[in-house]
Sequence to fold (97 residues):
Amino acid sequence: MPDRTRLTPDQAAASLQTLPGWDIAGGKLRRDFVFEDFVRAFGFMSSVALIAESMNHHPEWSNVYNKVRIELTTHDAGGLTALDFEFARRASAAATR
Fold:
C-alpha cells in the first residue's frame, strides 16, 4: 500500500506531473470527470467505490448528471500523500473502461 506520509509541496507538484487532468486546489488533489450521461457517471462512481474500499481510502466526491468531481487528501496525514496519487491513478484508469 502506498505511503501515508504527508508530501512536501514540491513532492506533490512532481507527482501531479504524472496525472493528466488532475490539479491541486485548496490542498486537495482534484479532477472533474465528464461522461456521456448519468448512467455512465454512476457506473464510474460504482467502480471507484470498489477501489476506495480496496484501498481503505475514500474520496470526497460529488455527482451532477454526467459530471463527477473527486477531491482527495489523506486526512490523518493532514495533506496529500502517495496514497492520494495512487488513488487518482486508479480512478483515472477506471474512467477509461
The longest strand covers residues 28-34.
